[in-house]
Each structure stands twice: as structure tokens, then as C-alpha cells.
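Lab meeting, action items carried over

1. Structure of the two-component assembly. Owner: GW. Status: complete.
Input record:
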Amino acid sequence: MKEIESLWDEVRELSLGTSSTTIDHLPSPPSPLHFLRNYVSPNKPCIISNAITHWPALFLWPNVSYLSHSLCHSSVSLHLTPHGRADSLVPSTPTHDSLCFASANVQRVPFPRALDCVLNSQPGKFVAYLQQQNDCFRTEYSAALGSDCDAHIGWATEALGCLPEAVNLWIGNHFSETSFHKDHYENLYAVVSGKKHFLLLPPTDVHRLYIRNYPAAQYSYSEEDGEFKLEMEDPVRYVPWCSVNPYPSPEAKESEMAKFPLYFDGPKPFECTVNAGEVLYL
Amino acid sequence: MKEIESLWDEVRELSLGTSSTTIDHLPSPPSPLHFLRNYVSPNKPCIISNAITHWPALFLWPNVSYLSHSLCHSSVSLHLTPHGRADSLVPSTPTHDSLCFASANVQRVPFPRALDCVLNSQPGKFVAYLQQQNDCFRTEYSAALGSDCDAHIGWATEALGCLPEAVNLWIGNHFSETSFHKDHYENLYAVVSGKKHFLLLPPTDVHRLYIRNYPAAQYSYSEEDGEFKLEMEDPVRYVPWCSVNPYPSPEAKESEMAKFPLYFDGPKPFECTVNAGEVLYL
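Predicted assembly:
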């Protein structure tokens, strides 16, 4: 165990070159070589300012009617959950004695209605999130919005030696919360409107996350009575997922810290907020 | 075990992008970005031609009297073994029933004498090798030979973002043989005269090498009677070393293959020969 603990520190010191929990913030786009050498190669995240400030999207997309008008004939996938936590652990029974891995209710709806749901979300009633990881920007949005942004980010394309495999557009609100997960892709996360807060951990911290198997469940949603029901998959399917919630409620905090000491007693995660106009490499 | 075997294949396919056992050969030096993206980042070795052909060393150093004359006042570390295998496993007893990790006999001698020993090596009598990994070129040789080559390799320095941590000059002959080992450095191996043959394995193949602990021993050499004696270190010190000899003698071959099936039955190592004027990145 001591060896693994010193691995956490060594990765932070040797590979990421830092024992602080903030990440590098570049005031302007790096050269492809600088980006590859100092961030991609050592798997080190960074925030880049002034990389997308020339995108018309930055002043066009915050305008709700512009988006609704441009996409009035499009259908998109709307993800609905009761509280804004999709792909996360929730109690599978009313007695709270076991957890399951709950996926959102997904509906195909016209874009203007979907955007309406995002804007009028209310935890306890429903929280809506437009999110897909299937290259949805290029397949679903780009006919209408393609001219509002660049098709790729030049210096990153040159550094990585290939165009993006997928480009996704996500539209959420401040209730949307994604639990700890891993993405095995090089990722450039551009925020066009609003901001997003990240907690990041290096891959060598995997042991601190208490990955366990949870039975999969899915929310169903009835529009008539506005009720969510959580339905366990049948036959049962197990999903390995991180047990740690980094922001436990005040009343759960003590028991969560006791259950997951490797996380709560270990080094703090890297923390950053990406604001509109900024790009996070991770 | 199946999982580890498929890891060997996956690393070859995904990371190295090849199922062949030859490595890329670049006809001329790559740009820093190309080198970093296609070789350093994916940990992929390559041979580069025409990278050092402008070094005067290429025509100066093969000339024995030039070297001896330039370094007539220098002392260097001469490594002596009976057969050319330093830092390798040899029988620790005359009955061959156990192995030890044998280091060369090291002597500080005037360079001209050392070079003489290298050139007049004879397995069974002695094999000499000038080798050190302590930045010996810059500390011991560069006053005399520094103007014969570049102080660093520009495109690699730019790609890696730093000057070499160590520059070493090794002078051996065709008897010198180095057993499987790992170097945890980015390495540019330039051959100025002669050639060197490499067998390379990706780090994920470590399980195929049967790393075990062997007691350390050191050769002593008596100039008077020209005899080597193998002396076990006292107190005993154990060195973890690779058990596999990739080139077993014909009579030992069958038993070696039976003892180390993960190596002999698994994917072949990457194989290459670096000729004078070429650089191997590894």
C-alpha cells in the first residue's frame, strides 16, 4: 500500500511536474510542438485562453432564439434525470441500502423543445441535458451551426497528427453533474457559453476510486404525471463504476470519508473551472 | 495469462502500429514535431539516416592513431571480461548449477592502452570494452574530441525540450554483447564506426523476460598470469536481472526454450542493425 501511495506522489511530481492542484493556464494557443511536448506527451491537462475567441458561436449561441431558430427542424437526444446526475450511482431501493448505476431517460425530441427543457430544468421535477458522444455536432448540428465555429483546432490537429475522431456539442445547465469517469481519448473541451468545473485525477489514481460493479438501471419518465421511475435492467447487467462522490452531502460526509479513505485522505484532485472562450485539454 | 498475451499483441498493433518486427527507417532527420508525435510520444523506436553524416568524427574516429594521439594524455575506464559479456548471467560455480550476475573488471588506464586492448581482444583470453554511462563523453573525451561532432542533436533537443542529460562514448568490438536490460531514458544511439545489432521489446513484455534475483559477482583480472577470477560479492547482494538469453548455444537451445516459453513462444522482438552514420532512437 505504501508503494501505491508513493506512486500517486511520484506521478504528480515527475510526470506532471507539480505538487499543486491547479493546472497550467496558457494565455494563448501553444505551438503544435509545445503542446505535444509539454501537455500531450506527459498526459498533462491545461487550459488555453484565446483559442476560440474568433468563433462566431461565442456571441451567437448564448442567444436562445438564434439556436432554436437555426435548429427548428432538427431532432436531438434529450437526457432526463430527476436531479441532473446521469450515469451515476443512486439508491436502487427506497430503503437506500444498495446502489445501482442509473442512466438517464433518453428521448428524441425537436431541438426547440429540448432546449426549453434544459432552460426550465428544476431538480426534483426534472433536469435535462443534451449530450451525446457519437460525433453529434458533425452529424446533427453542423448543417445549421457549422459556420459558427472551426471544424477543428489547428494546432491540436497538427500536434496529434489527425483530425478529431468525434466532435460533440453538449448543452446543459448548472444542475448537470457528471460522476468520476475515464475517457480514453485525447480531449479538447471548449466552453462556448457558461462554465464547467472539473475535478481531474491521473490514471494512476485508479485505486483511490473504489471501482465496483453496480447493477445497471434506467430512468423511465412519464410526461403525463411528470414522474420518474428507476427500472433495473433485466436480465441484470453489472457496470464497473467509481464508488466515490467527491462532494458528499454534509450529513453523509463522515461516513463517505470513512468508506473511501484512499480518496479522501490522499492527494487532492486537480481542480479547474473552464469559462466561456476557454479550452481545456485533458 | 491469456490477457497478458493479448496485451503483447495489442501494444504491437495499437501503439506501435505494426505486427512486423522491423522498425521504421527514416531516410533523413524528422522535424521535431514529427519525431515527437510519431516516435517519442508512442514510445516507438526508429532508425534515422543522414543525421550525423556531417560529423567529422565519421571519418576521423575510425582512424586508430587519430584517437590515440588525440587522447594520449587521457585515462579512461576499461571494462574487461573473459568473453565480452558484461553485466550478464554466468555460472557461479564450476559445476554450472547456479547463475550469478557478473560485472566486468574495471581499470583506469591510459586511453592508448585501453584502445589497444579493445582492438586486440580475444574471447577466452580477454575482451575489452570502453563503456560508461556517466556522461563520459562530455567529462572525459570532449576536450580532445568535442569538435568532431555536434554537442547535441538539434531536432531531438527541440522535440524533447532539453539538452541531453548525459552523452556517452562507447568503444567496443564485435565480441561485445549486452544482455537484455531496460534504460529508463529517451535514448539516441549514434554509431560512428562499425555497427551494432539490437533486439528490442516493448515495456509491456517485461513478464516474458523472467526477471529473477541473482547474486552479484565481479571479475578480477590478474595481468601477470592473464587469468580472470569471478568473486561473489560479500555480503551477498541480489540483482534482479532478465533470465533469458535470446541467442542460446545450439546445445542449450532446447532446455532454454523449455525454461522460458513466454519469451521463445511469444512475439518476436523488434530487430535492427544500426550502421555507421545512423542514429537509433529508443
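2. GW to write a short summary for the group page. Key points so far: The first strand of chain B starts at residue 24 and ends at 26. Residues 2-15 of chain B form the longest helix (14 residues).
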